Amino acid sequence: MDIQLVNDICQQVYRAHPEVKGVKPKVQPYNGSGNLLIFQAKAKTEDGHAISHTIRVVVSAEGKIKKISASK
Question: What is the pTM of this model?
Answer without folding.
Answer: 0.87
